[in-house]
Inverse folding.
């Protein structure tokens, strides 16, 4: 761990939005040897959603020869760290919050208009379409489209009469 870090250490951040009564986001970071493990939970009413944890090695984002100049010079690859945090903590928390409030999905495959989603699904193989169909009700309904299966059958079984 970087010099000055206590081990084991626990860092906790809680957030409640004034427009979302009875809701709270908690992010908990724990140092475990050379890794920092970040867990996040969303509590809306009595329901608690947990997103997958993020494990990072802080040494991979610190400049080893930092001489005490600007704080920005102490870090490296912050865009990679930001992307990891966004993809593994922020987006899943946003998705869980929107689902808990019965709001529509705003990113990912499920946010695509049906005609564009069908064009994407047509690029997949049958096993991948079946995997996508098992992720949520919305995608399952889209994957049941007759024209999609007709296309997959014609593409994957050329020469056969359907």
């Amino acid at each position: 761990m970087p010099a000055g870090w206590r081990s084991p250490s626990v860092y906790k951040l809680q957030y409640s939005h004034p427009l979302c009564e009875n809701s709270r986001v908690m992010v908990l970071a724990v140092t475990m040897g050379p890794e920092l493990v970040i867990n996040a939970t969303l509590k809306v009413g009595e329901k608690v959603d947990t997103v997958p944890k993020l494990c990072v090695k802080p040494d991979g984002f610190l400049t080893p020869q930092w001489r005490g100049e600007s704080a920005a010079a102490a870090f490296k690859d912050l865009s990679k760290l930001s992307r990891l945090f966004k993809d593994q903590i922020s987006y899943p928390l946003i998705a869980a919050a929107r689902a808990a409030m019965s709001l529509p999905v705003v990113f990912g495959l499920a946010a695509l208009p049906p005609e564009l989603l069908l064009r994407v699904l047509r690029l997949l193989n049958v096993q991948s379409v079946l995997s996508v169909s098992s992720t949520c009700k919305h995608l399952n309904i889209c994957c049941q489209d007759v024209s999609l299966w007709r296309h997959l059958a014609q593409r994957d079984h050329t020469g056969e009469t359907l």
